[in-house]
Amino acid sequence: MSANATPNNQPPQWVHLNGKLTPKQDASISIYDHGFLYGDGAFEGIRVYNGNIFRLDGHLARLYRSVQAMGIALNVTQEALKERVLETVRANQHRQGYIRLSVSRGVGLGLDPKHLRSESTVVISTEQLSLYSQEMYEKGLITITASTRVPPSCCIDPQVKSLGRYINNINAKMEANRVGAGEALMLNMEGYVAEATGDNIFLVRNGVLSTPSSHQGALPGITRAVVIELAKELGIPFHEDVFTLYDVYNADEAFLTGTAAEVIAMVQCDGRDIGNGKPGKTTNCLIKGFRERTGTDGTKI
Ligand SMILES: Cc1ncc(COP(=O)(O)O)c(C=O)c1O
How far is 260 from 98, CA to CA, in rounded Å? Predict the structure, then answer.
Protein backbone atom coordinates (compact mmCIF):
# COMPACT_ATOMS: atom_id res chain seq x y z
CA MET A 1 0.00 0.00 0.00
CA SER A 2 1.43 3.43 -0.92
CA ALA A 3 2.00 6.09 1.76
CA ASN A 4 -1.33 7.76 1.16
CA ALA A 5 -3.43 4.80 0.09
CA THR A 6 -6.51 3.84 2.10
CA PRO A 7 -8.11 0.44 2.60
CA ASN A 8 -11.22 -0.68 0.64
CA ASN A 9 -10.16 1.20 -2.49
CA GLN A 10 -11.16 4.56 -1.04
CA PRO A 11 -9.38 7.49 -2.70
CA PRO A 12 -6.37 8.75 -0.71
CA GLN A 13 -7.43 11.33 1.84
CA TRP A 14 -5.84 14.77 2.20
CA VAL A 15 -5.80 17.48 4.80
CA HIS A 16 -5.11 21.12 3.94
CA LEU A 17 -2.56 22.05 6.59
CA ASN A 18 -1.24 25.60 6.68
CA GLY A 19 -1.68 26.07 2.95
CA LYS A 20 -0.46 22.65 1.77
CA LEU A 21 -2.44 19.57 0.83
CA THR A 22 -0.91 16.91 3.08
CA PRO A 23 -1.65 13.16 3.21
CA LYS A 24 -4.08 12.66 6.09
CA GLN A 25 -1.81 10.28 7.99
CA ASP A 26 1.03 12.84 7.91
CA ALA A 27 -1.07 15.83 8.98
CA SER A 28 -0.04 16.86 12.49
CA ILE A 29 0.26 20.06 14.48
CA SER A 30 2.52 21.13 17.32
CA ILE A 31 1.84 20.05 20.91
CA TYR A 32 2.21 23.78 21.69
CA ASP A 33 -0.51 24.87 19.32
CA HIS A 34 -2.71 27.41 21.13
CA GLY A 35 -5.82 25.60 19.91
CA PHE A 36 -4.67 22.48 21.74
CA LEU A 37 -3.20 24.22 24.79
CA TYR A 38 -5.94 26.78 25.43
CA GLY A 39 -8.83 26.28 23.01
CA ASP A 40 -7.54 29.51 21.47
CA GLY A 41 -9.05 29.33 18.02
CA ALA A 42 -12.25 29.17 16.01
CA PHE A 43 -13.84 26.74 13.59
CA GLU A 44 -16.60 25.95 11.13
CA GLY A 45 -18.39 22.72 10.27
CA ILE A 46 -19.67 22.78 6.69
CA ARG A 47 -21.70 20.27 4.65
CA VAL A 48 -21.19 19.03 1.11
CA TYR A 49 -24.41 17.93 -0.58
CA ASN A 50 -24.45 16.41 -4.06
CA GLY A 51 -21.13 17.99 -4.96
CA ASN A 52 -22.12 21.44 -3.70
CA ILE A 53 -20.60 23.03 -0.61
CA PHE A 54 -23.60 24.36 1.24
CA ARG A 55 -23.45 28.05 2.18
CA LEU A 56 -19.64 28.15 2.04
CA ASP A 57 -19.52 31.96 1.85
CA GLY A 58 -21.75 32.24 4.94
CA HIS A 59 -19.52 29.88 6.91
CA LEU A 60 -16.36 31.72 5.86
CA ALA A 61 -17.90 35.08 6.75
CA ARG A 62 -18.81 33.75 10.22
CA LEU A 63 -15.28 32.36 10.69
CA TYR A 64 -13.74 35.73 9.84
CA ARG A 65 -16.14 37.43 12.29
CA SER A 66 -15.10 34.93 14.99
CA VAL A 67 -11.36 35.50 14.50
CA GLN A 68 -11.86 39.25 14.26
CA ALA A 69 -13.66 39.17 17.63
CA MET A 70 -10.83 37.09 19.13
CA GLY A 71 -8.10 39.33 17.71
CA ILE A 72 -6.55 36.44 15.78
CA ALA A 73 -4.62 37.51 12.68
CA LEU A 74 -5.61 34.88 10.15
CA ASN A 75 -2.74 34.54 7.68
CA VAL A 76 -4.95 33.92 4.64
CA THR A 77 -7.60 35.95 2.82
CA GLN A 78 -11.21 34.79 2.66
CA GLU A 79 -10.94 34.17 -1.11
CA ALA A 80 -7.76 32.12 -0.73
CA LEU A 81 -9.28 30.15 2.15
CA LYS A 82 -12.32 29.39 0.00
CA GLU A 83 -9.98 28.03 -2.67
CA ARG A 84 -8.28 25.81 -0.06
CA VAL A 85 -11.64 24.38 1.03
CA LEU A 86 -12.54 23.63 -2.60
CA GLU A 87 -9.14 22.00 -3.20
CA THR A 88 -9.57 19.77 -0.14
CA VAL A 89 -13.04 18.57 -1.09
CA ARG A 90 -11.95 17.94 -4.69
CA ALA A 91 -8.83 16.06 -3.55
CA ASN A 92 -10.90 13.83 -1.25
CA GLN A 93 -13.56 13.32 -3.94
CA HIS A 94 -16.43 13.88 -1.55
CA ARG A 95 -19.81 14.54 -3.16
CA GLN A 96 -21.43 14.23 0.28
CA GLY A 97 -19.62 14.95 3.49
CA TYR A 98 -18.67 17.23 6.31
CA ILE A 99 -15.80 19.72 6.22
CA ARG A 100 -14.05 20.80 9.39
CA LEU A 101 -12.21 24.10 9.06
CA SER A 102 -10.25 24.94 12.19
CA VAL A 103 -7.91 27.81 12.93
CA SER A 104 -5.84 28.59 15.98
CA ARG A 105 -3.88 31.65 16.99
CA GLY A 106 -0.60 29.84 16.37
CA VAL A 107 2.11 27.88 18.18
CA GLY A 108 3.79 28.84 21.45
CA LEU A 109 3.91 27.78 25.08
CA GLY A 110 2.43 30.30 27.47
CA LEU A 111 -0.91 32.00 27.10
CA ASP A 112 0.49 35.40 26.16
CA PRO A 113 0.08 35.77 22.37
CA LYS A 114 3.39 37.68 22.38
CA HIS A 115 5.05 34.26 22.83
CA LEU A 116 3.67 32.83 19.62
CA ARG A 117 6.34 31.33 17.38
CA SER A 118 4.18 30.94 14.31
CA GLU A 119 1.34 32.45 12.36
CA SER A 120 -2.19 31.12 12.76
CA THR A 121 -2.63 27.38 12.20
CA VAL A 122 -5.23 26.57 9.53
CA VAL A 123 -6.51 23.02 9.04
CA ILE A 124 -9.18 21.77 6.62
CA SER A 125 -10.31 18.16 6.65
CA THR A 126 -13.32 16.23 5.37
CA GLU A 127 -15.23 13.30 6.81
CA GLN A 128 -18.51 11.47 6.43
CA LEU A 129 -20.91 12.42 9.21
CA SER A 130 -24.38 11.36 10.16
CA LEU A 131 -25.36 12.55 13.59
CA TYR A 132 -28.71 10.86 14.10
CA SER A 133 -30.35 7.67 12.82
CA GLN A 134 -33.04 7.67 10.15
CA GLU A 135 -35.51 6.65 12.87
CA MET A 136 -34.66 9.73 14.95
CA TYR A 137 -35.29 11.96 11.92
CA GLU A 138 -38.67 10.30 11.43
CA LYS A 139 -39.78 10.19 15.07
CA GLY A 140 -38.03 13.27 16.44
CA LEU A 141 -35.62 13.80 19.30
CA ILE A 142 -36.07 13.36 23.01
CA THR A 143 -34.26 16.22 24.75
CA ILE A 144 -33.48 17.51 28.21
CA THR A 145 -32.44 20.86 29.60
CA ALA A 146 -28.81 20.91 30.73
CA SER A 147 -27.75 22.50 33.97
CA THR A 148 -24.72 23.91 32.12
CA ARG A 149 -25.46 27.46 30.91
CA VAL A 150 -24.37 29.40 27.86
CA PRO A 151 -21.74 31.93 29.00
CA PRO A 152 -22.85 35.57 28.92
CA SER A 153 -21.52 37.83 26.17
CA CYS A 154 -19.32 39.63 28.71
CA CYS A 155 -17.29 36.39 28.87
CA ILE A 156 -17.00 34.50 25.57
CA ASP A 157 -19.60 36.03 23.28
CA PRO A 158 -21.80 33.10 22.15
CA GLN A 159 -21.74 34.55 18.62
CA VAL A 160 -18.06 33.60 18.42
CA LYS A 161 -17.67 30.02 17.24
CA SER A 162 -14.51 29.60 19.29
CA LEU A 163 -12.92 26.27 20.14
CA GLY A 164 -12.87 27.05 23.88
CA ARG A 165 -16.56 27.80 24.24
CA TYR A 166 -17.34 24.17 23.46
CA ILE A 167 -16.17 22.88 26.83
CA ASN A 168 -19.57 24.07 28.09
CA ASN A 169 -21.44 22.50 25.20
CA ILE A 170 -19.58 19.20 25.66
CA ASN A 171 -20.52 19.25 29.34
CA ALA A 172 -24.15 19.83 28.42
CA LYS A 173 -24.02 17.06 25.80
CA MET A 174 -22.68 14.67 28.46
CA GLU A 175 -25.71 15.55 30.58
CA ALA A 176 -27.92 14.47 27.67
CA ASN A 177 -25.90 11.29 27.15
CA ARG A 178 -26.21 10.32 30.81
CA VAL A 179 -30.00 10.08 30.47
CA GLY A 180 -30.09 8.77 26.90
CA ALA A 181 -31.46 12.02 25.42
CA GLY A 182 -30.62 13.04 21.84
CA GLU A 183 -29.78 16.65 22.69
CA ALA A 184 -29.68 19.12 25.56
CA LEU A 185 -31.11 22.61 25.59
CA MET A 186 -28.94 25.28 27.14
CA LEU A 187 -30.27 28.32 28.97
CA ASN A 188 -28.56 31.67 29.25
CA MET A 189 -27.61 33.14 32.63
CA GLU A 190 -31.08 34.75 32.92
CA GLY A 191 -32.77 31.39 32.45
CA TYR A 192 -34.07 32.03 28.93
CA VAL A 193 -33.61 29.33 26.30
CA ALA A 194 -30.55 30.05 24.14
CA GLU A 195 -29.97 27.01 21.93
CA ALA A 196 -28.94 23.35 22.09
CA THR A 197 -25.36 22.07 22.42
CA GLY A 198 -24.77 22.02 18.66
CA ASP A 199 -27.96 23.44 17.19
CA ASN A 200 -30.40 26.34 17.22
CA ILE A 201 -33.94 25.83 18.50
CA PHE A 202 -37.20 26.87 16.85
CA LEU A 203 -40.74 26.74 18.27
CA VAL A 204 -44.07 26.81 16.46
CA ARG A 205 -46.90 28.34 18.52
CA ASN A 206 -50.30 29.15 17.05
CA GLY A 207 -48.85 28.93 13.55
CA VAL A 208 -46.01 31.36 14.32
CA LEU A 209 -42.37 30.29 14.09
CA SER A 210 -39.84 31.76 16.51
CA THR A 211 -36.25 31.35 17.63
CA PRO A 212 -34.03 33.13 20.20
CA SER A 213 -31.79 35.92 18.95
CA SER A 214 -28.02 36.03 19.29
CA HIS A 215 -28.53 38.40 22.22
CA GLN A 216 -30.14 35.50 24.09
CA GLY A 217 -27.01 33.38 23.53
CA ALA A 218 -27.74 31.69 20.20
CA LEU A 219 -25.00 31.15 17.66
CA PRO A 220 -26.03 32.87 14.39
CA GLY A 221 -26.55 29.50 12.72
CA ILE A 222 -26.24 29.06 8.98
CA THR A 223 -29.02 26.43 9.01
CA ARG A 224 -31.11 28.75 11.19
CA ALA A 225 -30.78 31.43 8.50
CA VAL A 226 -31.84 28.95 5.80
CA VAL A 227 -34.94 27.96 7.81
CA ILE A 228 -35.85 31.64 8.29
CA GLU A 229 -35.53 32.15 4.50
CA LEU A 230 -37.70 29.09 3.88
CA ALA A 231 -40.35 30.32 6.34
CA LYS A 232 -40.54 33.60 4.45
CA GLU A 233 -40.90 31.78 1.12
CA LEU A 234 -43.57 29.45 2.51
CA GLY A 235 -45.51 32.30 4.13
CA ILE A 236 -44.95 31.02 7.70
CA PRO A 237 -45.01 34.00 10.12
CA PHE A 238 -41.66 34.30 11.90
CA HIS A 239 -40.03 36.44 14.54
CA GLU A 240 -37.08 36.24 16.91
CA ASP A 241 -38.34 35.84 20.44
CA VAL A 242 -37.31 35.43 24.05
CA PHE A 243 -38.61 32.21 25.52
CA THR A 244 -38.52 30.16 28.69
CA LEU A 245 -38.86 26.43 29.24
CA TYR A 246 -42.57 27.04 29.88
CA ASP A 247 -42.82 28.14 26.23
CA VAL A 248 -40.93 25.04 25.05
CA TYR A 249 -43.11 22.66 27.09
CA ASN A 250 -46.28 24.32 25.77
CA ALA A 251 -45.23 24.75 22.14
CA ASP A 252 -47.25 23.08 19.37
CA GLU A 253 -44.02 22.01 17.68
CA ALA A 254 -40.29 22.37 18.19
CA PHE A 255 -37.26 21.54 16.09
CA LEU A 256 -33.49 21.96 16.03
CA THR A 257 -31.25 23.18 13.22
CA GLY A 258 -27.52 22.77 12.66
CA THR A 259 -25.02 21.85 9.99
CA ALA A 260 -24.39 18.46 11.58
CA ALA A 261 -27.96 17.78 12.78
CA GLU A 262 -29.62 19.46 9.75
CA VAL A 263 -33.32 20.02 10.63
CA ILE A 264 -34.77 17.57 13.16
CA ALA A 265 -37.99 17.59 15.17
CA MET A 266 -37.82 17.79 18.95
CA VAL A 267 -40.76 15.85 20.36
CA GLN A 268 -40.04 15.73 24.06
CA CYS A 269 -38.25 17.92 26.57
CA ASP A 270 -37.63 17.10 30.25
CA GLY A 271 -40.24 14.33 30.16
CA ARG A 272 -42.98 16.53 28.61
CA ASP A 273 -44.35 15.76 25.16
CA ILE A 274 -44.18 18.76 22.85
CA GLY A 275 -47.54 19.10 21.06
CA ASN A 276 -48.75 15.58 20.37
CA GLY A 277 -45.26 14.13 20.81
CA LYS A 278 -44.74 13.72 17.06
CA PRO A 279 -43.01 15.87 14.43
CA GLY A 280 -45.50 18.61 13.53
CA LYS A 281 -46.85 19.78 10.18
CA THR A 282 -44.83 23.00 9.99
CA THR A 283 -41.67 21.17 11.07
CA ASN A 284 -42.14 18.53 8.37
CA CYS A 285 -42.81 21.20 5.79
CA LEU A 286 -39.57 23.00 6.70
CA ILE A 287 -37.61 19.72 6.74
CA LYS A 288 -38.89 19.04 3.21
CA GLY A 289 -37.94 22.56 2.10
CA PHE A 290 -34.48 22.20 3.64
CA ARG A 291 -33.89 18.90 1.85
CA GLU A 292 -34.91 20.41 -1.46
CA ARG A 293 -32.67 23.40 -0.84
CA THR A 294 -29.57 21.36 0.03
CA GLY A 295 -29.72 19.56 -3.30
CA THR A 296 -29.09 22.66 -5.35
CA ASP A 297 -27.92 25.67 -3.42
CA GLY A 298 -24.15 25.75 -2.97
CA THR A 299 -20.64 26.37 -4.27
CA LYS A 300 -19.78 23.72 -6.89
CA ILE A 301 -16.66 21.74 -6.07
C1 LIG B 1 -23.67 25.93 19.68
C2 LIG B 1 -24.22 25.83 18.31
N3 LIG B 1 -25.38 26.42 18.03
C4 LIG B 1 -25.91 26.35 16.80
C5 LIG B 1 -25.28 25.67 15.78
C6 LIG B 1 -25.90 25.63 14.42
O7 LIG B 1 -25.18 26.42 13.52
P8 LIG B 1 -25.02 26.03 12.00
O9 LIG B 1 -26.40 25.89 11.47
O10 LIG B 1 -24.28 27.17 11.41
O11 LIG B 1 -24.26 24.77 11.95
C12 LIG B 1 -24.06 25.04 16.03
C13 LIG B 1 -23.33 24.33 14.98
O14 LIG B 1 -22.48 24.87 14.36
C15 LIG B 1 -23.51 25.14 17.33
O16 LIG B 1 -22.35 24.54 17.61
Answer: 8
Given a contact cutoff of 8 angstroms between Cβ atoms, the answer to whether 255 and 202 are in contact is: yes
d(CA 1, CA 15): 19
Contact 274, 254 (CB under 8 A): yes
DSSP state of 182: S
Q: How far is CA 289 from the centre of its chain?
A: 19
Task: Give, for ligand 1, the residue of 199, 201, 262, 293 to mutate: max count of ligand atoms closer than 8 Å to Cβ.
Answer: 199
CB 248, CB 202: distance < 8 Å: no
Decide if 1 is inside a domain: no
Report the Cα–Cα distance between both ends of the chain, in Å, rounded: 28
In ligand 1, the atom with minimum distance to the C-alpha of 218 is 3
254 and 284 part of one domain? yes
- Provide the CATH number for the domain around residue 279: 3.20.10.10
51 lies in which domain range? 7-127
- How much is the pTM? 0.95
Does 181 map to a domain?
yes
Q: What does the pLDDT look like over 205-240, one tens digit per residue?
A: 999 999 999 999 999 999 999 999 999 999 999 999
Helix boundaries (H) for 93-221: 134-139, 166-178
pLDDT digits (tens, 9 = 90+) for 234-276: 999 999 999 999 999 999 999 999 999 999 999 999 999 999 9
Q: 168: Cβ below 6 Å to ligand 1?
A: no
282 lines ligand 1 (CB under 6 A): no
Examine residue 172 and state whether it is found in any structural domain, yes or no.
yes
Strand partners, 298: none
Report the amino acid identity of residue 106. G
